[in-house]
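User: Please fill in residues for this 157-position structure.
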C-alpha cells in the first residue's frame, strides 16, 4: 500500500489544516463497492442532487442519515426466505423461481462526504430511483467581503 506524506500540505495551507486531515482520512477509508450506481447533478449554483438506482427497494427499506459532514444511505431488504418464514404458511404463499435474476436487490451502504455548509433538503423514491436534494448555504459571516486599504481594524461582528 502507498503512503503519502502530507506534511507539505500542513505547511502551505494557513488555517486549512482540516483539508489535509480530510485527504488523509479519505486515503485511509475502505473502498466502497460500485453498487448501487449513482449520479451527482448540479441543479443550480448551490443546489445538487444525488440520484441512486435502487430497483426493488421500497421507502421503508432505505435509511438516509446525516452525521457531521457524512451522508450515509443504507438499503436493507429482507430475503424472500425470511419473508416467507415470517408469514403464515398458506397455499397463496409461493416462493418465486427465477429463470434469470438481473436485479440484485442486495443490501448496500453508500457514504458521501459533504462539503462544509451543505444541507440535505429532501429525499424521494420514485420508479426505483432515489433522489436526494442538497443545497450549500453559506452563512453571511463566511461570504467574501471587501476590505478597503487604509481602513481601521474591524472588530468581531
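Assistant: Residues filled in for all 157 positions:
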Amino acid at each position: 500500500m502507498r503512503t503519502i506524506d502530507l506534511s507539505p500540505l500542513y505547511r502551505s495551507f494557513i488555517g486549512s489544516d482540516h483539508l489535509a486531515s480530510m485527504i488523509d482520512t479519505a486515503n485511509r477509508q475502505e473502498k466502497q463497492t460500485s453498487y448501487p450506481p449513482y449520479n451527482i447533478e448540479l441543479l443550480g449554483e448551490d443546489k445538487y442532487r444525488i440520484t441512486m438506482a435502487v430497483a426493488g427497494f421500497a421507502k421503508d427499506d432505505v435509511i438516509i442519515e446525516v452525521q457531521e459532514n457524512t451522508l450515509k444511505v443504507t438499503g436493507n431488504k429482507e430475503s424472500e426466505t425470511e419473508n416467507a418464514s415470517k408469514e403464515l404458511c398458506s397455499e397463496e404463499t409461493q416462493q418465486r423461481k427465477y429463470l434469470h435474476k438481473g436485479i440484485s436487490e442486495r443490501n448496500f451502504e453508500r457514504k458521501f462526504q459533504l462539503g462544509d455548509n451543505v444541507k440535505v433538503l429532501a429525499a424521494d423514491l420514485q420508479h426505483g430511483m432515489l433522489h436526494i436534494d442538497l443545497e450549500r448555504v453559506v452563512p453571511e459571516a463566511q461570504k467574501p467581503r471587501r476590505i478597503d486599504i487604509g481602513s481601521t481594524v474591524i472588530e468581531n461582528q
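For context: The longest helix spans residues 17-28.
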